[in-house]
Structure formats: C-alpha cells, structure tokens
C-alpha cells in the first residue's frame, strides 16, 4: 500500500506541474481510499500537500516566464480570504455532501474547458497583460470559498477562470494558477486546523513524492501544445468527477436512467459547443465578396468596378 500511495502521490505532482490543477482532485481520493483517512482529515491534509507542491511546481514555470505575478498575487489574496471562511464553514457540513458538490463542480468546469473560449484563438492573442481588479476580486473570493469547503487547491477552477474568462494563453494560466493554489491552500489549511488533526508523517511522505513529481511536470508543461493541454485538463477533470460521484452516490442512483442521461449529456454538450465554435471561426471566410460571386477574387476586379461606377 505504501508503494501505491507514493506512486499516486507522484502523479499528483505531475498533474500540478503539467496542468496547473488536479492536485486535490487526486489527493483527496488517494488519502480517503488508499490511506484510509476520513473525508475531513483527507481534505485538510490535501491542502498541505497541494500548497507545498504548488510552490515547488511554480519554480520551473517562473523560470520560463509563464507566470503573471500581479494577477496571481491579487487572485491569491482574495482567494485566501474566501478559503479561510470556507474552511471554517466546512466543519459544520457532512463530508459526503462536500464530496458530491466537489464532483458536480468538477464536471461543470470540465465542460467549460472542453468548450474553449468563445472568442476563439484570437481572443487569447489579444488578452491583456493583467486582468481587471474587479474580475480578480469576484473570481478569487468564489474560488477561494470552494477551496476551503471541499479541500480543492482550486486549480480546476483557477485555470478555467484565467484561460476562459481572462483570455490568458493556457500555458500562462497554468503557471499563474500554481501561485494562487499555494496561497489559498495554506489559508484553507489554517481554517481546517481549528477542528482537524493531521497525521504529519503521512502528510510529509505524500508531499515529498508530490514535489518530486511536480518538478518533472513543470519541465513537460512547456513542450505541450496549448489546445492539447486544455483538452487533457478538461477530460482529466471529467474522469475524476465521475469517479468521485461513483464512490459517494448510492447504487440505486447509478441504476436510474436519469443519471445516465445526465452523464451522456456532458460529452454531447461539449461536442455541440465545439462545432458551433468552429462554425463561427470559419463563417467570415465564406461571407466575403469572393464567396458571393461563387469563385476566387479576380486580380484587378475592384479597379474595373470602380471605373465602371465613375
């Protein structure tokens, strides 16, 4: 079990280094199902693991200049406030409810990531160097509250917020998210420590393995194409969200046709949204003068038309 736990912890680090998220999505189930911790202890421990690992994974991204420091620090500051409050509130909520809510938010976020930004690639190229303060404040508080409640470092929410709402290139969104994740994970941990005791020996073992994995993941991140990175992140979150739901929901729920109808609607919605986005990107190319005339533009045609009009 120890070898399996260490191998899974390495995967946590690789996920954080490559995707800028997924740390707690993996860590909480690992601690619950492999280490035998209860939900609330696993949530608190995961915040420690992900916070330290996020700092380690940040280093190679910072060296490659894939971090927006102002956006990350402000987003992290607002998230810390939300994470502390969420961590205190989590003490009064059932663990099963927290994990189910966690999984549902994962699936909703995955759909947004797989659908991609509405403006297409052009929006990513023209994105501002830093996000507006108002957007950072609202998104930071909301993501931070989720972090504290369900023990997620928030990468599965921070990366989409930066990439989709902020229009940042995926690689920069990943690097910046690691700074945010580290800041608010420690804040969420502070909120949990008031009511939860941590097995420090287990926590340090998992953290050490995750840090080693994050250094490998950080080196790989810069070599992966942006669209491939976005797609991998989205489907990874879908798989983990379904896994967490499968562990928490009653067997009768999974046997009901409505459950499978909802799950089937997720990939259908993603495919339909991607087709609409592709159609919007290709539409301008088919609406110009050349398309209206039924063929390619003829050299000198515009000059002859102007001479005829005059």
List the helices and strands and how they pair.
Blueprint: H1 2-19, H2 23-34, H3 39-63, H4 69-90, H5 95-115, H6 121-125, H7 133-150, H8 155-165, H9 170-192, H10 200-221, H11 226-248, H12 251-255, H13 257-282, H14 289-293, H15 301-309
Helix pairs in contact: 1-2, 1-3, 1-10, 2-3, 3-9, 3-10, 4-7, 4-9, 5-8, 5-11, 5-13, 7-9, 8-9
Q: Please count the beta strands (DSSP E, at least 2 residues each).
A: 0
Mean pLDDT: 76
Assign a percent range to the helix content. over 70%
Low-confidence residue ranges? 119-126, 285-299
Class from helix and strand fractions: mainly alpha
Roughly how many Å is the radius of gyration?
22 Å
Describe the structure.
With 310 residues, the protein is an all-alpha fold. The protein is built from 15 helices and no strands. It has helices spanning 2-19, 23-34, 39-63, 69-90, 95-115, 121-125, 133-150, 155-165, 170-192, 200-221, 226-248, 251-255, 257-282, 289-293, 301-309. Helix 1 (2-19) packs across helix 10 (200-221), helix 4 (69-90) packs parallel to helix 7 and helix 4 packs parallel to helix 9. The model is unreliable at 119-126 and 285-299 (pLDDT under 50).
